[in-house]
Amino acid sequence: MKVNLLDVIDAIDTVSEDETYFYSIQDEEIVYALDDGEDDEFFIPLPTKQEVNDYQNMVNFTETIEDDKKRDWFENAIHGKGAFRRFRATLERFGMETEWYDYLEACHRELAIEWCEQHGIVYDTSARCEEVDDDWVEEDVVAEKEPIKQVQIPLRFVRIDEDNYMSALSLCDTYLQELDQYAGVSSSSDYDRAQNYLEEALEEKDIYVLSDHGRFIAMAICRMNGCVTTITDLCVVKDKRLNGVARQLVQEIQKEEVEPLQFEVPTTNSIMHAFLQAIGYAKVIHTTYTK
After folding, report:
1. Which residues are 123's β-sheet partners?
2. 8 A C-beta contact, residue 247 and residue 279
């Protein structure tokens, strides 16, 4: 599944109490509402007006204002009936409309990205191609088109939970096949096994991923034992390896969890052993034997 992020943001910008937007899985596009007779199994609802919650965005924006006098004005404006009207008037009073709309745009973009990541939808950040009017004349056409600009969004650190773990199935499935390969066992793709693996991990462990425009490209499963965090599983999709992705994921976990980090690695996984030694985790605390 894929979508242009600007389409998601537009739906979030314009949603109202009486409007509902959906993502069509079949057509891979945003639609205004479902037609009678359509199966909603093939449509994913976008954030509602309540979920967008622009009132809370106003509150959060007010808290970012450093000038005490201005902040007092905004705090008085956002309480009680007519808060949105008074808020807009206060923006005009202090000439802060641009600051507010930049802040609101960032909030809506973040919500759109989180929605894509929650539902496993890969998002494109390039500008949309405008439709050409059938009545165009040759003089109106620019000789050389400017290239479509792509907004660069860095890899995002995402915690996996019951809402978004299904988006990690493909990554986990590949990982489990590679584990079998290291153990000398032949296996094929099995999404049911990957789903069970993630569900069992969620019961007792923490799962983190790196998201590349909605695509989960790296995953780590962590077990907490007292003040020590042990990474029991670590994987990266094949086309993103040797690019520092695994290192970045480990660094993000170090910020999130209580240090020090430990790793459990099968003795047959030579690639993981080499990686850990390369990033400074070369000390072996103990070896587990099995029969």
Report:
1. 3
2. yes
Cβ-based neighbours of 77, under 8 Å, separated by 6 or more: 83, 86, 87, 89, 90
How is residue 205 annotated by DSSP?
Answer: S
Q: Are 121 and 113 in contact (CB under 8 A)?
A: no
175's tokens: 């990982």
Cβ contact 114:86 at 8 Å: no
Mean pLDDT of 212-223: 94
> What average pLDDT is seen over the chain?
86
Question: Cβ contacts of residue 48 below 8 Å, gap of 6+?
Answer: 15, 20
What is the location of CATH 3.40.630.30 in the chain? 156-278
> Which of 80-84, 244-248, 253-257 shows the lowest per-residue confidence on average (mean pLDDT)?
253-257
Strands 122-124 and 215-225 turn out to be unpaired
Check if the beta carbon of residue 97 is closer than 8 Å to that of residue 91.
yes
pTM over 0.90: no
Q: Tokens 């959906």, residue?
A: 22
CA 145/CA 159 separation, integer angstroms: 41
Q: Please state the rounded mean pLDDT for residues 146-163.
A: 78
Q: Which among 282, 210, 270 has a CA at the least distance from the CA of 246?
A: 210
How many angstroms separate the CA atoms of 277 and 289, rounded? 22
Burial pattern 77-98, b for ≥16 Cβ within 10 A else e, equals bbeeeeeeebbeebbeeeebee
- Among 3.40.630.30, 3.90.180.10, 3.40.50.1000, 3.90.230.10, name the CATH number for the domain at 156-278: 3.40.630.30
Nearest-5° angle of CA 65, CA 156, CA 270?
150
Average of pLDDT values for 225-235?
86
Residue corresponding to tokens 């979920």: 51
